[in-house]
């Protein structure tokens, strides 16, 4: 496909995750509890009754995950750091966990070796439990701001030499409303005594939001004052917020749409980018909306280098609601004429990009955008990976992204579809899947979905290639599970998964994988038998075998290893008609044999 105008080489695209949703290993290597640990284990708090103790096991399988990201050919990976892995008890006077520092440092180094830019979120909802128990967590301004700044400073010191893109907070609206207003997210506080024994939905969410904004702004000041001059990175906040369309053209519903935007987005964005709260919020809440001092307003205004944007759908806004968290506006997907808006609205995405650009006038980094396919969790794997509805969602979203940039003039710098993997989806448990990669939770094997292949292909066609770049291997060959891609067997894959990143010396395979990239599979250096087995597997992939201690050529008819997913993104190269050419000069059998050996060794050795 030929595209007349392409995204620049420095446009950042990749996939996103969050620590608690993927890592598991909640009691490994010194990690302390987060507020989600016990909350998710409490009966009735998740739809399927499951918790985040294992998730996608990415604390153990992180090397395999990065290898898959490299196979996908993405430019960047957005992930979050678990505060309680860095400081298990969370506080500024509590000890730092060196194993937590090492884990994320190793992840960052491996991403950079794979040519992937780390895009790091400091806080994605997993507050250390001790801080909540000690002083109320986000409810206590005097303590939480200092502790968050201390945590952020440790991260800047430990990783800022390599991380150049920072997000302080992910979706603070969800932290305040879902955690302290509706009580459906940790710590589960609200006024509904059937749901929570503690909390006040009329006051606590607004207090928490106030303290979140101050914590963000204070961390940004530390970064700008102490680290940015030498590290040369950028820092900001990322906010959720969906587009609001008036239910009809009546003045009250037109006003309702703006009021809904004021609370969904303006609650945080207006203070951070404009230096004031929306008038609608001040009128709605009165003295329940905490104000900032003049010194605090000076700190808050301008405390983001860009606009971080998470968005998923469009709502129809109707005047007359009684929900303050929606701006006293009713949401619906049914239009006035009875037709359905639906959950896929690419024009709404485009309209929201334009709204954000015109209102806040800073480059936009889209840090989440995604779609959960209804009923996907109940489908067999071979059907679930054919996620047609998600492909159509991303087809519309990327088209709107492209038009917003090239037709509307919106300055957009990144696009991170949510999510890299199916994962623990908070209060929904594991039944809701957003991933472009299917995770079999019984085996922890990963399977690329059609949506991953669509996005890889779209960005290959719509972005300028970097000098020397090649087509992502997943486009050139049939995609495989990452376990098959890196390992000889499930046993050898499990070997990597049963050790923490720091408790053994590993041998990293230097040979080429089947996708013509460095294999990188790691085995304990003490396990010589598995190293030998892994090496012999590589030999079989290029047509060789060890027999009686000698290398021999396998017969051409030797069957190759069965693919886990058989549907290629494009036709295999072998099916492409090739031009005929004159017969070449015949060579001697000995010359042909030597030539065959040379070609085989080129396939094997970098």
Structural summary, described in words:
A hairpin with a 4-residue loop joins strand 12 (437-440) and strand 13 (445-448). The protein is α/β, with parallel strands linked by helices. The longest helix has 28 residues, at 204-231. The strands form five sheets. An eight-stranded parallel β-barrel has the order 1-2-3-4-5-7-10-11, surrounded by six helices. A three-stranded mixed beta sheet has the order 6-8-9. A two-stranded antiparallel ribbon has the order 12-13. 40% of the residues lie in helices and 13% in strands. Residues 476-504, 513-517 and 554-593 have low confidence and may be disordered. Helix 7 runs parallel beside helix 9 (204-231), helix 13 (346-360) runs parallel beside helix 15 and helix 15 runs parallel beside helix 16 (450-462). The chain has helices at 19-22, 35-41, 58-72, 83-86, 98-113, 129-135, 141-159, 172-180, 204-231, 251-274, 279-285, 294-300, 346-360, 381-384, 388-406, 450-462, 473-476, 482-486, 490-497, 528-541, 589-604; strands at 12-16, 76-80, 117-123, 165-170, 234-240, 243-246, 307-310, 314-319, 329-332, 364-368, 412-415, 437-440, 445-448, 506-508, 522-524, 544-547, 550-553. The radius of gyration is 26 Å and the shape is globular. The two termini are 31 Å apart.
């Amino acid at each position: 496909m030929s595209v007349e105008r392409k995204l620049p080489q420095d446009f950042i695209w990749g996939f996103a995750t969050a620590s608690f949703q993927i890592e598991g290993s909640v009691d490994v290597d010194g990690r302390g509890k987060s507020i989600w640990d016990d909350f998710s284990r409490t009966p009735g708090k998740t739809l399927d009754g499951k918790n985040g103790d294992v998730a996608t096991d990415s604390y153990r399988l992180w090397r395999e995950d990065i290898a898959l990201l490299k196979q996908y050919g993405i430019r960047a990976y957005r992930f979050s750091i678990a505060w309680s892995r860095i400081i298990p008890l969370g506080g500024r006077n509590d000890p730092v966990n060196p194993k937590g520092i090492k884990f994320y440092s190793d992840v960052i180094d491996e991403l950079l070796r794979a040519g992937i830019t780390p895009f790091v979120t400091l806080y994605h909802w997993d507050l250390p439990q001790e801080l909540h128990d000690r002083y109320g967590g986000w409810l206590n301004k005097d303590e939480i701001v200092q502790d968050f700044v201390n945590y952020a400073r440790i991260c800047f010191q430990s990783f800022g030499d390599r991380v150049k893109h920072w997000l302080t907070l992910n979706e603070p609206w969800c932290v305040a409303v879902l955690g302290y207003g509706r009580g459906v997210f940790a710590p589960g506080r609200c006024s509904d005594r059937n749901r929570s024994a503690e909390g006040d939905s009329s006051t606590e969410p607004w207090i928490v939001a106030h303290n979140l904004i101050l914590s963000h702004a204070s961390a940004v000041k530390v970064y700008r004052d102490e680290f940015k001059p030498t590290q040369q990175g950028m820092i900001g906040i990322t906010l959720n917020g969906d587009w609001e369309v008036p239910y009809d053209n009546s003045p009250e519903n037109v006003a309702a749409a703006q009021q809904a935007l004021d609370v969904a987005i303006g609650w945080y964005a207006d203070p951070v980018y404009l230096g004031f709260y929306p008038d609608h919020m001040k009128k709605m809440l009165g003295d329940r909306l905490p104000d900032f001092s003049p010194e605090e307003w000076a700190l808050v205004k301008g405390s983001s280098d860009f606009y971080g944007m998470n968005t998923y759908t469009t709502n129809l806004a109707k005047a007359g609601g009684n929900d303050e968290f929606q701006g006293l506006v009713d949401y619906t997907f049914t239009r006035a004429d009875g037709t359905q808006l639906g959950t896929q609205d690419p024009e709404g995405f485009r309209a929201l990009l334009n709204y954000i650009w015109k209102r806040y006038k800073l480059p936009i980094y889209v840090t989440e955008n995604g779609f959960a396919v209804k009923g996907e969790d109940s489908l067999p794997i071979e059907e679930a990976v054919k996620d047609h509805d998600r492909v159509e969602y991303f087809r519309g979203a990327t088209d709107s992204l492209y038009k917003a940039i090239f037709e509307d003039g919106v300055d957009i710098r990144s696009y991170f579809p949510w999510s890299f993997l199916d994962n623990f989806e908070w209060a929904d448990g594991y039944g809701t899947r957003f991933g472009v990669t299917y995770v079999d939770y019984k085996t922890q094997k990963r399977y690329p979905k059609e949506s991953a292949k669509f996005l890889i292909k779209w960005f290959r066609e719509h972005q300028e290639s970097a000098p020397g770049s090649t087509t992502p291997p997943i486009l050139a060959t049939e995609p495989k599970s990452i376990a098959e891609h890196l390992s000889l067997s499930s046993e050898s894959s499990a070997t990597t998964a049963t050790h923490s990143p720091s408790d053994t010396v590993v041998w990293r395979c230097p040979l080429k994988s089947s996708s013509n990239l460095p294999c990188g599979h790691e085995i304990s250096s003490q396990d010589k038998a598995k190293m030998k087995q892994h090496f012999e597997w590589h030999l079989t992939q290029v047509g060789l075998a060890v027999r009686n201690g000698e290398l021999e050529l396998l017969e051409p008819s030797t069957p190759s290893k069965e693919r886990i997913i058989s549907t290629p993104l494009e036709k295999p190269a072998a099916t492409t008609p090739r031009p005929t050419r004159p017969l070449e000069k015949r060579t001697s059998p000995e010359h042909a044999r030597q030539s065959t050996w040379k070609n085989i060794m080129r396939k094997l050795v970098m």
